[in-house]
């Protein structure tokens, strides 16, 4: 028996240079209680990742800051066109 993959979706904010990856569907008001900064890449790269957790400590989302330094121009174009960069997704 294989587990179903999570229902990944994302939002992209070009002005903030950020992508939010939802790991478990939509997140309602007050559902998140903690954001934890996750070390990412080399120091000085300008990329940060924040892991958002719900009340039970379950990861609900990842926020990537500085995505223009992390993803290729083609992936960023996909975000702008609301195309997912995740294989096998919409």
SSE blueprint and pairings:
Blueprint: E1 9-13, E2 18-22, E3 32-38, E4 48-54, E5 59-65, H1 73-80
Antiparallel strand pairs: 1-2, 2-5, 3-4, 4-5
Report what the structure shows.
The protein is mostly beta strands and 90 residues long. The chain is built from 1 helix and 5 strands, in the order βββββα. The protein has one helix at residues 73-80, and strands at 9-13, 18-22, 32-38, 48-54, 59-65. The chain has a 5-stranded antiparallel sheet with strand order 1-2-5-4-3, with no helix packed on it. The longest helix is centred in the last third of the chain and has 8 residues, at 73-80. The radius of gyration is 14 Å and the shape is globular. The two termini are 24 Å apart.
Describe this structure in a few short sentences.
This protein has 90 residues and is mainly β. It contains 1 helix and 5 strands, in the order E-E-E-E-E-H.
Oligomeric state of the chains? single chain
Order of helices and strands: EEEEEH
Form type: globular
Provide the spatial order of strands within the biggest beta sheet. 1-2-5-4-3
Biggest β-sheet strands, sense, barrel: 5 strands, antiparallel
Counted beta strands: 5
Q: What distance lies between the first and last C-alpha atoms, to the nearest angstrom? A: 24 Å
**Percent of residues in beta strands:** 25-35%
Number of H- or I-type helical stretches: 1
Summarize the amount of helix as a percent range: under 10%
Structural class: mainly beta
Which parts are unreliable, with pLDDT below 50 for 5 consecutive residues or more?
Answer: none
């Amino acid at each position: 028996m294989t587990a179903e993959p999570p229902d990944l979706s994302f939002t992209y904010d070009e002005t903030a240079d950020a992508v939010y990856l939802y790991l478990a569907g939509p997140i309602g008001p007050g559902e998140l209680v903690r954001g934890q900064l996750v070390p990412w890449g080399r120091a000085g790269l300008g990329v940060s990742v924040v892991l958002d957790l719900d009340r039970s400590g379950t990861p609900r989302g990842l926020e990537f800051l500085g995505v223009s330094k992390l993803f290729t121009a083609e992936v960023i174009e996909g975000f702008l066109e609301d195309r997912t960069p995740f294989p096998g997704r919409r």
